Structure to design on (274 residues):
């Protein structure tokens, strides 16, 4: 079975469980699963039930696709993602994004936990991602191009849609939520970056660092989806403070920031018009 056929089978399975086309998809990062609880009349599909859909193994990722109504829009909410460091191929990491695009999703909202490189961005802060640096050493579009999905050489100059970012910033202002802007640099993980790597990332122009999102955004751009990505700085990146980094700290700060993140995403989705 070809990759295209696997995507189509997964798409058909999900479509058979719902009677609407989702406009917006949200990918919930570590510790942010709470948003899915507010989806109205939800159809909940465990990842293991969807043909060929990769399973989340990272802590803080529930592994469920939740579809329903959320603040006036039909949505698909991914409670958890998979990462390159889990041993998946890039084609598997981005498999869900392909399926969502084929379902009819027009706007993708990836969220994530990140480490703050810019010291003004303190732990618990929310950041709208303006651009990214792909430092993962690979690209999910390497290999045969399927013209039906997108061009061989997609443009990434507006990978993080400027109009959607403006809507998010206006929503943050209305909700009295401080929202920083920043460039995200993606490393593979699973190790946290070294202090030297963080110094390098700062010189390259990065403000926050993480282990996800970049492949998803590249594939979303390839599929013609618009993207608005929001990060929660869960800690300071390596070397900024004199202490060890732990995933326990990341999850703890993400849980603390989850209400603020949910309020921002809700206000944003309410304001998106098609």
């Amino acid at each position: 079975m070809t990759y295209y056929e696997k995507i189509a089978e997964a798409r058909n399975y999900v479509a058979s469980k719902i009677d609407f086309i989702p406009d917006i998809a949200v990918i919930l990062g570590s510790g942010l699963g709470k948003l899915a609880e507010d989806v109205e009349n939800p159809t909940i599909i465990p990842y293991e039930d969807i043909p060929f859909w990769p399973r989340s193994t990272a802590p803080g990722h529930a592994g469920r696709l939740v579809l329903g109504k959320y603040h006036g829009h039909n949505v698909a909410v991914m409670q958890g993602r998979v990462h390159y460091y889990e041993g998946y191929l890039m084609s598997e990491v981005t498999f869900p994004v392909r399926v969502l695009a084929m379902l009819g999703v027009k706007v993708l909202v990836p969220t994530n936990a990140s480490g703050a490189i810019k010291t003004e961005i303190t732990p618990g802060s929310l950041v709208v991602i303006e651009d990214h640096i792909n430092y993962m050493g690979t690209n999910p579009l390497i290999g045969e191009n399927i013209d039906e999905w997108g061009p061989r050489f997609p443009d990434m100059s507006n990978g993080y849609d400027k109009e959607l970012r403006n809507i998010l910033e206006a929503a943050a202002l209305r909700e009295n939520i401080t929202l920083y802007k920043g460039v995200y640099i993606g490393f593979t993980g699973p190790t946290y970056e070294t202090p030297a790597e963080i110094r390098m990332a700062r010189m390259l122009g990065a403000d926050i660092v993480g282990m996800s999102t970049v492949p998803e955004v590249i594939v979303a751009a390839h599929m013609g989806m618009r993207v608005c990505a929001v990060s929660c700085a869960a800690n300071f990146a390596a070397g900024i403070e004199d202490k060890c980094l732990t995933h326990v700290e990341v999850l703890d700060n993400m849980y603390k920031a989850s209400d603020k993140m949910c309020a921002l995403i809700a206000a944003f989705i309410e304001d998106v018009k098609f």
About this structure: The helical segments are 3-16, 90-93, 95-103, 162-174, 195-204, 214-222, 247-271. Residues 247-271 form the longest helix (25 residues). The mean pLDDT is 95. The CA atoms of residues 199 and 251 lie 24 Å apart.
